Amino acid sequence: KQEVTQIPAALSVPEGENLVLNCSFTDSAIYNLQWFRQDPGKGLTSLLLIQSSQREQTSGRLNASLDKSSGRSTLYIAASQPGDSATYLCAVYDDYKLSFGAGTTVTVRA
Amino acid sequence: GAGVSQSPSNKVTEKGKDVELRCDPISGHTALYWYRQSLGQGLEFLIYFQGNSAPDKSGLPSDRFSAERTGGSVSTLTIQRTQQEDSAVYLCASSLEKRTSDEQFFGPGTRLTVL
Predict the structure, then answer these.
(1) CA of B88: which chain A residue's CA is closest?
(2) CA–CA distance, A12 with A3 (Å, rounded to integer)
(3) Chain B residues with CB-CB distance to A under 8 A?
(4) Which of A69, B20, B48, B101 has the most CB within a 10 Å radius?
(5) How far apart are CA B81 and CA B14, in angstroms?
(6) Nearest CB neighbour to A43, from listed B31, B45, B107
């Protein structure tokens, strides 16, 4: 069974600092990997989808890398803002099922 | 265009009652998924529908849970004889079709509270 781990569980940084969020998975035979953002009491907002043939994906201040051989992905958020405060979830595609990590809760202090 | 919609957004029920949760996928999406997000278990897969194929029910936690999808569009998740451990946020997602490269798009969820 695929196990997805996110470290750290929580992170607090001052505004302007870069964020580094880590995701690891036990079975490297994944298809895609997706990063989501979840605000309190809300649903999931997709941030980046990295397909299995890709090594990274970028959108604005966000960059996500994928290393299937080592079972790792990293989400970088440049120049953090208070509006980036949320829980970030990593999910891997085991065929069509998503296996989620427990998330990293980020607080960006103004 | 319109995203995935779910109703109700919140549902409070008494233990032992039946509840129905509804999901409207993105128009044209043939694959539909239900997930559950609970405090103790995180986000977990429940059930998957693809076109007219038999659904994958492997994630349903007990036989009190069932789901159907009518006309290849709207889906209803039914929980019979609800228990307090059923309290969670139920999320629905859809994708264009069942291919491993197809991105899943999530609805806002239904928060279920069983008293």
Answers:
(1) A41
(2) 25
(3) 31, 33, 35, 42-45, 48, 50, 56, 59, 91, 93, 95, 98, 100-109, 111
(4) B48
(5) 9
(6) B107
Q: Which residues of B touch A34 (CB under 8 A)?
A: 103-104
Q: Residue-wise pLDDT tens for chain A (110 aa)?
A: 889 999 999 999 999 999 999 999 998 888 899 999 999 888 899 999 998 888 999 999 999 999 999 999 999 999 999 999 999 999 998 878 899 999 999 999 99
Residue B63, helix vs strand vs coil: coil
Residue B35's closest CA among A100, A86, A29, A101?
A: A100
C-alpha angle with apex B56: B52 to B57, nearest 5 degrees?
A: 125
Give Cβ neighbours of residue A15 (< 8 Å, ≥ 6 apart).
A80, A81, A82, A108, A109, A110
Q: Report pLDDT digits (tens) over B11-65.
A: 999 999 999 999 999 998 999 999 999 987 789 999 999 888 888 999 999 999 9
